[in-house]
Design goal:
By secondary structure, the protein is an alpha/beta fold. The protein has nine helices and 13 strands. The strands form three sheets. The protein has a seven-stranded mixed beta sheet with strand order 9-8-7-10-11-13-12, sandwiched between helices. Helix 4 crosses helix 5. The chain is globular.
Length: about 280
């Protein structure tokens, strides 16, 4: 049953126009949490909306309301617990992997599951992969799950809570021999891997361009592939991202081949999270 259908008898027609039609669910059949955005016009009906969500999804034990945009270098939001358990730690299941996390402490987007799978399916046997801004490990885990012959995945994360969950998730999924979790700043920790990687994943749309220098240097001398995420406006979807890429291609005297450019998710009206997949080859 759709949320707005269930709310028809509980909200006025005017209120119903403001009612959320979508929300995120993180977790499993055993325990999940719902994350919803409620506009100021429905402040007085927020608990009714939370009850409706839990009525539709019996596995939801907590309903969280977004109170802010993502803040700080850790990319986390402020939330209000509308209904249910204060304990918001869950195990989220996604394409064969399990991810333990608490969205009040770490960044995680369930909407990017298919994008993570898309990247994982491109990894070839024997590759060494660098995942920057690794979070609780979804990209790293997905890569190993769908390409078990990968040599190793280096996963760097700044948030100590996310790093702790990543270490635990690596154990939960029995991938200790493949994934190397690293706590710290990408700018510092990636130096240990300069010249050693076949592929670099940069799943941070806001500010990832500031780390393209490190991404280029992580690749082996013969080159490799970079998956670069960026926020772009609809009317000029590729220009700024491509300009950043070409700037470093010129700096390091590399030739570039754009393999793909795609919209991943809408961020705001007319603004999208995009991914540019490109190949870097060394020029003699």
């Amino acid at each position: 049953m759709k949320l707005k259908q269930l709310l028809k008898d509980k909200l006025t027609l005017e209120e119903l126009a403001y009612a959320p039609s979508t929300f995120d669910i993180i977790g499993s059949r055993e325990k999940a949490i719902a994350i919803v955005e409620i506009p100021p016009e429905l402040e007085g009906k927020k608990y009714i909306i939370a009850e409706a969500i839990m009525q539709i999804h019996k596995n939801v034990k907590t309903v969280l309301r977004k109170l802010s945009e993502r803040k700080t270098v850790y990319r986390i939001r402020e939330y209000e617990v509308l209904l249910g358990d204060e304990d918001t730690e869950v195990i989220h299941k996604e394409y064969g992997i399990r991810l333990k996390l608490d969205p009040r402490k770490v960044y995680f987007s369930p909407r990017e599951a298919t994008e993570r799978l898309r990247i994982a399916r491109q990894v070839m046997p024997g590759e060494t992969v660098m995942v920057m801004f690794a979070g609780v490990g979804p990209y790293a885990l997905m890569i190993v799950k769908h390409q078990p012959l990968v040599d190793k995945v280096i996963a760097i994360e700044l948030n100590p809570y996310a790093y702790k969950y990543m270490v635990e998730n690596v154990k939960i999924n029995k991938m200790e021999t493949k994934i190397i979790p690293i706590l710290g700043d990408v700018r510092d920790k990636s130096k240990d891997w300069f010249g050693l990687c076949n592929r670099v994943v940069m799943p941070l749309p806001k500010g990832a361009y500031k780390f393209l220098d490190e991404a280029f240097q992580c690749l082996k001398i013969e080159g490799g592939t970079i998956h670069f995420y960026f926020w772009a406006r609809e009317e000029d979807i590729s220009r700024e991202a491509i300009e950043h890429i070409w700037g470093y291609a010129w700096k390091y005297k590399k030739k570039i081949k754009i393999l793909d450019l795609r919209k991943v998710l809408p961020y705001a009206p007319g603004v999208y999270k995009i991914c540019v997949d490109f190949r870097v080859n060394y020029i003699e």
